[in-house]
Amino acid sequence: MTQRQSRPRSPASWHPAAPEREGLWIFTRVRDFVDDIANTSPARLALSAFGAVCLVFTFLLSLPVSSATGTATPVHQALFTAVSAVCVTGLTVVSTAVHWSFFGQLVILIGIFVGGLGTLTLASLLALMVSKKLGVRGKLIAQEAMNNAGRLGEVGTLLRIVIVTSVVIEGVLALALIPRFMTLGEPFWQSVWHGAFYAISSFNNAGFTPHSDGIVPYETDLWILIPLMLGVFLGSLGFPVVMVLQQNGLNWKKWNLHTKLTIQVSFILLAAGTVLWALMEWDNARTIAHMDLGDKITHSLFASVMTRSGGFNLVEQNHMESTTMLLTDALMFAGGGSASTAGGIKVTTIAVMFLAIAAEARGDSDVKVYGRTIPQGTMRVAISVIVAGATLVSVSAFLLLQISGASLDRVLFETISAFATVGLSTNLSAELPPSGVYVLTVLMFAGRVGTVTLAAGLALRQRSQLYHYPEERPIIG
After folding, report:
1. Domain residues of the chain, as ranges?
2. Cβ–Cβ < 8 Å for 183, 261
3. Range 395-413 average pLDDT
4. DSSP string, 295-325
5. pLDDT given at position 48
6. What's the whole-number mean pLDDT along residues 45-49?
7. How far is residue 31's CA from residue 72's CA, in Å, rounded to a whole number?
8. Membrane spanning segments where (predicted)?
9. At 474, phi and psi to the nearest 5?
10. Which of 34, 310, 421, 456 fits 89 for a cystine, CB–CB 3.0-4.6 Å?
């Protein structure tokens, strides 16, 4: 047999093999960049992802097609609205129903849905979509967002459950609301739009309304108010709690500690808020004094649900008593459950701190509840979240006092509402100059992503120490 010899290629026919296809190198660079951040600093990825989403929606809302008049919206107004939607706050500087076109309202609604998934969920999804994988630290961050609801290998499944759960609950709420809007005389497609808008806005605790006068015209309509309250309350519990309820129902013994604390403290705050709001506003002629007993109870319960992050209101916030505004400040700062669409410092943070105070009063070295000991690291994270939140509110309130010249009660109310992503307003946001609008914009962003990423980041920053200094206790109190 003769061996076949290959002929050498002519220089004209030879081309070096390209390492990457032309046009794909950008995707490769982005994939490597995201993968590196996801594995080295997931908290930074969460901030970057949320910031990028806010900028995209700002660009869309600044387009002429987004406004009802067909003119471009000023940057500070578009940015504020985009951040308010993505951070599921609900504060507005322009009327959602009047200023924005249908396209603009649709952009806001999509922003609410995307933002309601949460910063850590978005970061995990971004890493999965771009780099097709999550590193160990990325999985730990995603698992922390789900409150350890599953094993590391199930992170992708958990993220899918979050999205499916959101869509199902919002769909059920929409189906409950659409028939009511139809019976009130709205055309079919307008009823569908309003039902879907309120369903997404309520479950994500956003507080945006497609009506120029909000939900005040429906202040006695339980067919509308009850689905809104249920949506806001379920959204404020958080996905980890909803998943536990799906798996174990109302079997208290099978609930984990996070679920027990979240539901217990949420109901305590709900009941206390309802009773206190009713007592303070019962004889207020500017709010509910003229109503019958049933409507007063409905208003009180609705206000208690919404002040912890819902953002819908039935009464003018400026007409409330000063004591009621202070109560609202406290409830807004408390917020809802961890890994939820609610804001604030979270109810489990409050529970941990009160349990620590009770243990210290009893002289116990361990903080115990329901047969479990809460780790010291969890208490340090709770303290960090509370101090960080109080610092953000204090600095922002100081700046807004200087910028606006408004009274302290209005400034503090608006500041806490922005930080806790509630959306209740004394109309100060619409009166602020652009500099004040930017302050509230930064506060909304920091309130939505700051404490969450801080808590998750601190939870993973456990360094082993090879030595300890001698203990010495300073005088406290």
Report:
1. 40-460
2. no
3. 94
4. HHHHHHHHHHHIIIII---SS-GGGS-HHHH
5. 75
6. 72
7. 34
8. 45-66, 78-100, 106-130, 158-178, 222-245, 257-280, 330-358, 379-403, 437-460
9. -75, 165
10. 421
